[in-house]
Design a protein that fits this description.
single chain, alpha/beta, Metallo-beta-lactamase, Chain A, Rossmann fold, 7-stranded mixed beta sheet, binds zinc ion
Length: 457
């Protein structure tokens, strides 16, 4: 009989919110839960280049919880480095991860090209972490499976996905092996998501690995309907634009949904709404393709998308910039790190009639964060632009459970876990949640560091 062995190594999203990668070793199988990209600060991004503690070809399979870049964005590199096993994920995750990884490949290629042109970067020539072609090589390895579908991995190990309510297709993992139940939360959604089904309880768990992105705080209660309505009315009255930097997956569809609902209530002026983001359009179409994965009826989903003018080709995008129309325009990227939003800002950032609505978390070091912190000018397209546009931040639309919601979810576990690991959070976020769990639930809590291994009994 095979040795029953169980161990876990946190290879990413430990003490940070990006680079999700957790290696579970069970009965000789090596299972990687998520293969995400490190993002944000340079010290973190450099970790994407680090050599692996084990050769990727020795990993048996990947369980991918959802299609955000910090969960799937390392897969092309993993495959490039020799991984050949199956990547299990839900059907919407497969489609969404495909567009996210290809877009990331394009950005990696562009970054390497720019570094070579401008002569910066430590390596000559600068190489991309991976290319679009590498991203496309992941697709044949992906194995779609639905929520609650039991998948046998061999060696007495099996798992199933459950709904995490975070973005379309997002999942947590319930895994059984070596006589233990191990539950990975993935990224957990809100108690009442706008149009997704709410997350499921964890079930039985001897060991729980739980995210802690908002482990230290509660979400603002500001109504997103009110903020979006006010911002649109302002644009209409000023005969100007409302620009919304767009996060392609989930947030863009939420904003479209809110605008649709406001329109149905006749709460908005007659103003055209544009989505100028090929990736945002693709993500929206994937949502329409999977009607059973969200709560919207087919007719409602179609009506909400029909009310938005979709712009794919760069020529129409340039024409809209020049037109100077009174309109609501959503364009990527969400933290203003690149993309078509910069073309609009080139024209409108110094115009005090124009409005800019930031609809999500703005990470440190991004242009979006600089604007929130009151920057008087912003550098892009090779020069500085004065900031005069009216800027607002909508901080109540979040795809993550807050501290209260995380605790409520944990309390639903069917049996007291032997231990819980808190990942996917900055140190202070995880720590605040740890104190709450220890005090309220009396569980043993660990906050792993990157690279830390734990034997599980
Ligand atoms: Zn996520």
């Amino acid at each position: 009989m095979e040795e029953q062995r169980l161990g876990i190594t946190f290879l990413g999203a430990a003490g940070t919110v990006t680079g999700s990668k957790t290696l579970l070793e069970v009965n000789g199988l090596r299972i990687l839960i998520d293969a995400g990209l490190f993002q944000g600060l340079k010290e973190l991004r450099q970790l994407n280049w680090k050599e692996w503690p084990l050769h990727p070809s020795h990993i048996d399979c990947v369980l991918l919880t959802h299609a955000h870049l910090d969960h799937c964005g390392y897969l092309p590199r993993l495959v490039k480095e020799g991984f050949r096993g199956p990547v299990f994920c839900t059907p919407p995750t497969l489609d969404l991860a495909d567009i996210v990884m290809r877009d990331s490949g394009k950005i990696q290629e562009e970054d390497a090209r720019k570094a070579n042109e401008q002569g910066f970067g430590r390596h000559r020539p600068a190489l991309p972490l991976y290319t679009v072609e590498d991203a496309m090589a992941v697709l044949p390895l992906m194995r779609p499976c639905n929520y609650h579908q039991e998948v046998e991995l061999g060696h007495g190990v099996r798992f199933s996905f459950f709904n995490a309510g975070h973005i379309p297709g997002s999942a947590g993992v319930r895994l059984q092996g070596a006589g233990r139940h191990i539950v990975f939360s993935g990224d957990l959604g809100r108690k009442k998501p706008l149009f997704l089904y709410p997350k499921e309880p964890p079930g039985h768990a001897d060991y729980l690995i739980c995210e802690s992105t908002y482990g230290d705080r509660l979400h603002s209660k500001t109504s997103p309907y009110r903020v979006i309505k006010e911002a649109i009315w302002r644009a209409y009255r000023k005969k100007s634009v409302l620009l919304i930097p767009a996060f392609a997956i989930e947030r863009t569809q939420e904003v479209i949904y809110i605008i649709h609902r406001l329109r149905m209530k006749k709460a908005l002026p007659p103003i055209p709404v544009y989505l100028d983001s090929p990736m945002g359009i693709n993500a929206t179409e994937i949502m329409l393709k999977y009607p059973e994965w969200h709560r919207l009826s087919e007719a409602e989903a179609k009506a909400m998308v029909d009310a938005v003018k979709l712009i794919r080709d760069p020529r129409s995008s340039r024409a809209l910039v020049h037109k100077g129309e009174t309109a609501v325009i959503m364009a990527g990227s969400g933290m203003i790190e690149g993309g078509r939003i910069l073309d609009y800002l080139e024209r409108y950032l110094s115009d005090s009639d124009a409005g800019l609505l930031l609809v999500g978390f703005q990470a440190e070091g991004t242009r979006g964060r600089a604007l929130l912190e009151g920057a008087g000018e912003l550098k892009f397209h090779g020069r500085y632009h004065k900031v005069k546009a009216h800027i607002r931040h909508l901080d109540s639309l979040s795809a993550h459970a807050d501290q209260k919601e995380l605790l409520e979810w944990l309390q639903q576990v069917k049996s007291k876990p032997k231990r819980i690991f808190l990942n996917h959070g900055e140190r202070h976020q995880a720590d605040a949640l740890r104190v709450k769990i220890e005090t309220l639930l009396g569980w043993e809590v660990r906050i792993p560091r990157i690279g830390q291994y734990f034997a599980l009994g």
